[in-house]
């Protein structure tokens, strides 16, 4: 079965729209972009489209890559203090002269739409209420919408990034799954994946997971987005693996649309939190 991420994204957007029918003003996000980058531009255009589809506010603040770190931190501070801004995204990567860590730390945790601030990461680790990174949240949303039970399941997460792998593993453990984290130093990766009920791949390598690594019981979630000869492909050899796995997400049309949609839920939580 191929999981339809676009259909799930539409459900999430409708939920966000319904939750804000009585809002006094639009929940609003500010995206900060330095210079120009084709992949970042594409993401921000999709973000703008997603926000406008539910009548949420979106503003792009663009600056030259020559901006100083102190100037950028000042811009973030101004947005932190703006009561009409509910979420802030600083598009990465940043120029070499600007510290990503300092920028992430500068964003108010209550406006940290990506969930990268250490305060949000720490709360997530402890199982407390926190802004969750959008891609892991998208994966968890897919499980929920597809009625995929996680209690006691053996789940292999391939990739240990701070953005996807690590927070996703924590979120899965909070749902009582048994999680195996695999990475470039993992020995006998195939032995882990063949025993897994669910395999989540987030390594940034095209066609990394092949059909011989998957059992017929497995659910495969492909988080990868790779440009191969102008075509977007995932980390899974989709055409081969779909013939083996019980369920699989495609690329495009799988995790990606849901990731964009759940950002609206994070924004809405920030907006509501400001009203409490």
Supply database-style keywords.
three-stranded parallel sheet
Termini Cα gap: 42 Å
Helix fraction bin: 40-55%
Number of strand segments: 10
Class computed from helices, strands and strand pairing: alpha/beta
Number of helices: 10
Mean pLDDT: 94
Low-confidence stretches: none
Q: What's the arrangement of strands in the largest beta sheet?
A: 5-4-6-7-10
Question: What can you see in these coordinates?
Answer:
By secondary structure, the chain is of the alpha/beta class. The strands form 3 sheets. A 5-stranded parallel beta sheet has the order 5-4-6-7-10. A 3-stranded parallel beta sheet has the order 2-1-3, with helices on both faces. The model has no long low-confidence stretch (mean pLDDT 94). The radius of gyration is 19 Å and the shape is globular. 41% of the residues lie in helices and 16% in strands. The protein has helices at 5-19, 38-53, 69-81, 100-106, 118-126, 134-145, 165-174, 189-194, 238-241, 255-275; strands at residues 28-34, 57-63, 87-90, 154-158, 178-182, 198-201, 219-222, 226-228, 231-233, 247-248.
Topology diagram in text:
Blueprint: H1 5-19, E1 28-34, H2 38-53, E2 57-63, H3 69-81, E3 87-90, H4 100-106, H5 118-126, H6 134-145, E4 154-158, H7 165-174, E5 178-182, H8 189-194, E6 198-201, E7 219-222, E8 226-228, E9 231-233, H9 238-241, E10 247-248, H10 255-275
Helix pairs in contact: 1-10, 6-7, 6-10
């Amino acid at each position: 079965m191929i999981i339809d991420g676009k259909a799930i994204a539409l459900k999430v957007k409708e939920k966000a729209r319904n939750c804000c029918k009585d809002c006094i003003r639009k929940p609003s996000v500010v995206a900060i972009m330095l210079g120009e980058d084709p992949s970042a531009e594409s993401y921000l255009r999709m973000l703008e489209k997603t926000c406008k589809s539910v009548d949420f506010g979106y503003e792009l603040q663009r600056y030259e890559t020559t901006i100083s770190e102190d100037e950028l931190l000042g811009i973030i501070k101004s947005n932190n203090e703006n009561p009409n801004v509910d979420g802030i995204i600083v598009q990465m990567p940043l120029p070499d002269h600007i510290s990503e860590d300092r920028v992430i730390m500068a964003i108010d945790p209550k406006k940290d739409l990506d969930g990268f601030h250490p305060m949000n990461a720490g709360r997530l680790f402890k199982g407390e209420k926190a802004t969750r990174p959008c891609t892991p949240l998208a994966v968890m949303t897919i499980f929920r919408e597809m009625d995929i039970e996680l209690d006691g399941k053996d789940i292999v997460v391939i990739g240990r990034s701070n953005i996807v792998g690590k927070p996703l593993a924590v979120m899965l453990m909070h749902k009582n799954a048994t999680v195996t984290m695999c990475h470039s130093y993992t020995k006998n990766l195939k032995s882990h994946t063949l025993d897994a009920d669910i395999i989540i791949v987030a390594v940034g390598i095209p066609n990394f997971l092949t059909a011989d690594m998957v059992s017929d019981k497995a659910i495969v979630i492909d988080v990868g987005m790779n440009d191969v000869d102008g075509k977007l492909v995932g980390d899974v050899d989709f055409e081969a693996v779909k013939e083996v796995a019980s369920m699989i997400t495609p690329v495009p049309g799988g995790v990606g649309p849901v990731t964009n949609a759940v950002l609206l839920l994070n924004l809405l939580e920030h907006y509501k939190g400001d009203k409490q």
